[in-house]
Structure formats: structure tokens, C-alpha cells
Specification:
The chain is an alpha/beta fold. Helices cover about 30% and strands about 25% of the residues. The protein is built from 12 helices and 22 strands. It has helices at about 10-25, 40-45, 45-60, 80-100, 160-165, 180-190, 210-225, 305-320, 365-370, 405-415, 420, 435-440, and strands spanning about 1-10, 30, 105-110, 110-115, 120-125, 130-140, 140-145, 160, 175, 195-200, 230, 235-240, 240-245, 250, 255, 260-265, 295, 335-340, 345-350, 355-360, 380-385, 390-395. Helix 6 (about 180-190) links the parallel strand 9 (about 175) and strand 10 (about 195-200). The longest helix has 22 residues, at about 80-100. It is globular. The structure holds nicotinamide-adenine-dinucleotide. Nicotinamide-adenine-dinucleotide binds near residues 181, 259 and 336.
């Protein structure tokens, strides 16, 4: 049989594409060498958020006094937290398997590689068998990047994020190299469970791609609570359990390296004409330079976010099926969240140039925030086109901003003006009302 679509990689991009194309009645074959769900579900978003939730329960219990609750001799069982994380992952992986369980979708468990490609067909090999398809979608994701620092390779004290998630005991202390999203989320996890944490970041700021006024609030809080954050600091060598920097050295139990991820090009060696830069080059329909080859998700080197990957997959399949109206990928309103405590969430531009008006309000303008965040600060910033009064960006710090950033994304996506946004009714009392307050 010649399939309509062969997909390599069963993460958010791959399984979304497989579900969408097969539900439209097209024969699809999906190759996945590990578990369905990819990095996000197995060793990324979901396991980290599950552990972070356990850590937050412990943290809240040990800080309950300010809410008039006395919780004495609170303790935790990390192995049990890890077990629960595995249970959550298993449940969600099974959910994806169910989603792909239809007559048009074949899932093959194994490492696939491209054998040959013409404009008419692509041949793929997996587990010693060959499969042919009209179209190929590459959704191979990304892999942890280990920088070429002396003493890092084969060092049992050095972890990447996958090692950290697999560990069933906590380190006695940890140095986190890289103050990006992964670094700050793990810093939160370990800190809330009482592990001494040092973050080493090469740039002048942690979370360098986010609004720095917002990030500074997080940094101030974390430093006050005892997390050591060294910015503008480069690791020059790792000697056993000593991290040597251009600014001194730190001794630690474990060293977690999270300095970014790189597109995974495994199995694509035969596609010698495939155009790549930071990842596989794609247009707004996720087409590569090779007719009938599409690429979606982290492998494109665009925004490495699960929700971007799944949207890219929807766009690509829509294009393949020639669905009318054809939709292009639009990156202007992609929300992003950092699951620190407090959470940070943002969408749209951070620019504060003269053309833009920037409005700010402390989160304490929301009654619900005050009720539930004793002694906490929070901030909402909105970037607005000065002349047209269009909402261009929203940046938030304060719990639970991850849960309502979608409302701001909607406004940015639809190009709402402030008077239009002002007409939206937000439920009271919710922290989301802070967005409404901004329009008044
Ligand atoms: P990142 O790019 O977000 O951060 C890496 C950090 O490491 C940067 O701040 C960089 O300046 C720093 N760095 C680089 N080399 C260094 C060195 N030698 N010494 C010290 N610091 C160094 O990458 P990440 O945190 O590894 O995350 C990888 C990808 O996964 C990102 O695209 C991220 O958006 C995504 N992700 C997203 C979420 C989320 O949305 N909540 C969670 C986890 C990961």
C-alpha cells in the first residue's frame, strides 16, 4: 500500500498531524521509536509540571501559616512524587494511542529512516520493512544540547533534564547551568523541596528572551528565598563535582546542564538536498524546499514549544489536504509560560520603543489575587500601538497567570483595540480581571 502521509516522530506535531489526516480519511503511517507523546509528554512539559505541582503542594503546606493554617511536621516522599509523575505520563500516552486508534492510522514502533525520495513518493525503512507514501512529514523534535565544556562528557555528576526527571532521589545540592526556561523550572522544583540551588547563566539576565522587568521580580524573590543566581558567568570547566567559572567555582552534588536544545536530524541523512539553517527551513505552510516534504515542531528550529508544534501540524495537514480557506502559521500571538512560582506568562511583543504605549498595573488590582497570594507581588504589562490602540503584547507575573494568558493571546491574535477589549466581560472574582483593569 502507498500511504498518503508518512510521519516520522510521534510528539505533539506528529500525533496531531496523524490524527487530523487520518480523521479526514487519509491513510497515514506514523513512526515513533520511543513512547507516543514525544519529549513534551514523556520527558518534558508534562513530567516537569507534575513534579512541580507536588513541590508546590509541599511549599504551600510549609508556608500555610500566613493563611492562618498550621501544618506541622510536613514532609514529602520524592520517590512517590516520581511514581505519580510516571502514572500521569502513562495515562496521557494511552490517551494519544486512543486518539490514533482508527482504520486509517498505522503506528509503527521503531526508528525510521528515509531511504529515498522523488516528487511522487517517499520510501521509509523501519524495523527492516519499507513503507512508501505520497508525502513525508518530519516531526523528529529536538535533543538536549551538551556544550563543549571540559569535563562535561561522561561525568556521572552531570545531568541533562531527562536524567533529572528519571532520578528517584533528590540531589543534596544542585548547580544549574543555563538560566533559561528549563533551568528556572528545575530551580523552582529543587528549591521548593529544600535543595540548595545555584543557577549559572552566561547572559546578563536569566530568562533573557522575556520582559526583563517581569523577570527581575522573579529574580528578586528567588534570591531573597536563597536561590543563588550568577549571571554574566561562563562555565569554563567541570572537574568532578566542581563547576569552574570565569568568576570562581562552586562545589555541588549534581550539575544540571540546560543550555538549549538542537533539532534532531536522525534518520534524515538521505535527504541530502533538504535545506537547513537553525533547523529545517519551512515556509508558512510548513513546506520544506523539497516538494511533498513538510516539517513541524522543534526540528524546524522555530519556537520550541509543544503548542507551536501542534499548530504547525494542523497548518501543514490543512495545506496537504488543500482545505479551504488555507491557513498559514502565524507566530505573532503565540503565548508562552514559565512554570516558576510565581508563574510568568506572555504573548506578543515586549518592545518599549517610542511608538508603543506601555501600561502597567500591579496584580493587587485583582481582588482574587490579593485573596490568594498573601505577601506576593505581581505585575501585568500591556504593550499597545499608540495610534491605533491595538493590543500588541501582554506580560504577566503572578499565579495563576498561565491559566488566563490565552485571553490575552486571543486579543493579540484578533488585533483587538483597547475599546474592543474593554467590552469583554471577565468573571469576578478572578485574577484574569487584571486584563480588564488594564483597559480602564
Ligand atoms: P533556553 O534557550 O530557554 O535557555 C538556555 C539558557 O542557557 C539561555 O539563557 C542561555 O543564555 C544559557 N546558556 C547557554 N550556554 C550557556 C553556558 N555555557 N553557560 C551558562 N549559560 C548558558 O533553553 P532551555 O531552557 O534548555 O529550553 C530548551 C527549549 O525548550 C526552549 O526552546 C524552551 O522554550 C523549551 N521549553 C519550554 C518550556 C515552557 O514553555 N514552559 C519548558 C521547558 C522547555
Amino acid at each position: 500500500m502507498q500511504y498518503f502521509l508518512a510521519i516520522i516522530g510521534g510528539g505533539p506535531a506528529g500525533y496531531t498531524a496523524a490524527a487530523k489526516a487520518s480523521q479526514a480519511g487519509k491513510q497515514v503511517v506514523l513512526f515513533e521509536q520511543n513512547a507516543l507523546g514525544g519529549t513534551c509528554l514523556n520527558v518534558g512539559c508534562i513530567p516537569t509540571k507534575t513534579l512541580l505541582y507536588s513541590a508546590k503542594q509541599y511549599w504551600n503546606a510549609t508556608h500555610a501559616d500566613k493563611y492562618g493554617v498550621k501544618a506541622e511536621q510536613v514532609s514529602f516522599d520524592y520517590a512517590k512524587m516520581v511514581q505519580r509523575k510516571q502514572k500521569v505520563v502513562r495515562k496521557l500516552v494511552a490517551g494519544i494511542r486512543m486518539k490514533l486508534n482508527n482504520d486509517c492510522c498505522t503506528v509503527v514502533n521503531g526508528a525510521a529512516s528515509v531511504v529515498s525520495r522523488t516528487d511522487e513518493k517517499v520510501v521509509i525503512e523501519c524495523n527492516g520493512e519499507q513503507y512508501t507514501a505520497d508525502n513525508l512529514m518530519i516531526c523528529t523534535g529536538s535533543v538536549n544540547f551538551m556544550p563543549p565544556i571540559a569535563g562535561i562528557q561522561d561525568n556521572p555528576n552531570v545531568w541533562d533534564s531527562t536524567d533529572a526527571l528519571a532520578a528517584t532521589t533528590l540531589p543534596e545540592s544542585i548547580v544549574i547551568v543555563g538560566g533559561g526556561v528549563i533551568g528556572m523550572e528545575f530551580a523552582t522544583l529543587y528549591h521548593e523541596l529544600g535543595v540548595p540551588v545555584t543557577v549559572i547563566e552566561a547572559m546578563p539576565h536569566i530568562l533573557p528572551n522575556l520582559d526583563q522587568e517581569i523577570v527581575q521580580l522573579l529574580r528578586d524573590k528567588y534570591e531573597k528565598e536563597g536561590i543563588r543566581i550568577l549571571t554574566d558567568t561562563k562555565v569554563t570547566e567541570i572537574a568532578g563535582n566542581r563547576v569552574i567559572t570565569d568568576n570562581g567555582e562552586v562545589e555541588t552534588d549534581k550539575i544540571l546542564v540546560c543550555v538549549g536544545r538542537r533539532p534532531n536530524m536522525q534518520g534524515l541523512e538521505q535527504l541530502t538536498d533538504l535545506k537547513c539553517e537553525r533547523g529545517i527551513v519551512v515556509d508558512d505552510f510548513m513546506r520544506t524546499n523539497l516538494p511533498n516534504v513538510y516539517a513541524c515542531g522543534d526540528v524546524t528550529g522555530k519556537l520550541m514549544l509543544a503548542h507551536v508544534a501542534s499548530r504547525q501540524a494542523e497548518v501543514a495537514v490543512g495545506r496537504m489536504l488543500k482545505q479551504i480557506p488555507l491557513q498559514r502559521i502565524d507566530y505573532k500571538a503565540i503565548p508562552s509560560v514559565v512554570y516558576t512560582n510565581p508563574e510568568i506568562a506572555c504573548v506578543g511583543i515586549t518592545d518599549e520603543q517610542e511608538d508603543y504605549e506601555v501600561r502597567k498595573l500591579p496584580m493587587s488590582f485583582s481582588g482574587r489575587f490579593v485573596a490568594e497570594n498573601e505577601g506576593e507581588n505581581g505585575l501585568c504589562k500591556m504593550v499597545i500601538d499608540r495610534k491605533k490602540q491595538i493590543v500588541l503584547g501582554v506580560h504577566l507575573i503572578g499565579n495563576p497567570c498561565s491559566e488566563f494568558i490565552a485571553a490575552a493571546s486571543f486579543a493579540v491574535r484578533m488585533g483587538y483595540t483597547m475599546p474592543e477589549f474593554q467590552q469583554v466581560v471577565f468573571p469576578h472574582p478572578t485574577v484574569s480581571e487584571i486584563l480588564k483593569e488594564m483597559t480602564e
